[in-house]
Amino acid sequence: EDPSLERHFKGHRDAVTSVDFSPNKKQLASGSMDSYLMIWSMKPQMRAYRFVGHKDAVLCVHFSPSGHLVASGSRDKTVRLWITSAKGESTVFKAHTATVRSVHFSSDGQSLVTASDDKTVKVWTVHRQKFLFSLSQHINWVRCARFSPDGRLIVSASDDKTVKLWDKTSRECIHSFCEHGGFVNHVDFHPSGNCIAAGGTDSTVKLWDVRMNRLLQHYQGNSVVNSLSFHPSGNYLVTASNDSTLKILDLLEGRLLYTLHGHQGPATCVAFSRDGDLFASGGSDEQVMVWKTNFDAADYGDVVKPQKYGSSVDGTHGTGVEMDCGIHHKKTKTQDSGRTHEQQEEDTSLANTLEHIMGQLDVLTQTVSILEQRLTLTEDKLKECLENQQKIIQNKTN
């Protein structure tokens, strides 16, 4: 069955720049040039929240692993961490000296990586938003930065036409991939952590093996690639392009699988849900669209297999091409045979409880940060009042 348009959301007043599903798929966050963050409910007839705070375009959004926080980055040079409740409370910090283009939580929810037009990538703690370190070898705007699934690596994409791979511990650039012929708009890690994919203004999508630092696949399209997202199985990639289309690439076969038309004007962003059942897209037409993937689970396969050279329809060509990222998604029956149904249910229940506790800790931490910011503002106002009073008294005595 082909992917199908499930629903679309209207509420933004300018181009949509970024979309991300909450881990439980109950909410969808979107950022826009209209300076607002929107949180859409996936339940029918539930109202959306418009979060006001940024003073300029919101260029990136990302849910924390617990789903209780959303990070957003803006042209106002700040990053905000929002609690996803009706109140729309947030803490704000000046993250960069120029536009913030990218925000991304680590898989443990403890760190945040940001990328900016100030040519740097920065890493922060989520708790109290403490600055940890900066990565600064790019020589032009940095459009995108992502943690690897295990949190040990960071990848960044820049207008200097390079994709850089960084070691988070040593803070050194391990490798620069220089095959793009234009600005690199977006980059992300394969779910296995062994590969990366990037798309840019040269209308190509390229996949590299980060262990061997070599090009695995290359897709030549007809239009600027603005965004991409891996399906959680690792076997598919969806892209959003300036020609208004979304394209789904089959990484096993090295070919274009679908071209989807929906947006009027450039498709600016796209993201799969955490389980891969849905993907969302945003465009310059101010719309957010939600699509049902409709992939057959049997298509996910055990491993991304080596593929042959090939080309495909619609101007997209896949070449070069061993793609063995070492993913094993299907469980064999023997793996679970020694465990009772009750034990599995207990494990699931415990995991859910721990996840809930972590989520509540996120919210508590964020609430404390918000209160601290308010106290600081109150102290500053009190100091200002006292200074004004002292000036009045001095003027009177003079």
TrEMBL record:
Spans of repeat WD: 9-50, 51-82, 93-134, 135-176, 177-218, 225-259, 260-292
Keywords of the record: Coiled coil, Repeat, WD repeat
GO BP annotations listed: cilium assembly; microtubule-based process; multicellular organismal-level homeostasis
Family classification: Belongs to the WD repeat POC1 family.
PANTHER family for the chain: POC1 CENTRIOLAR PROTEIN HOMOLOG A (PTHR44019:SF2), WD REPEAT-CONTAINING PROTEIN 55 (PTHR44019)
Free-text function comment from the UniProt entry: May play an important role in centriole assembly and/or stability and ciliogenesis.
Protein name: POC1 centriolar protein homolog A
Organism: Oriolus oriolus
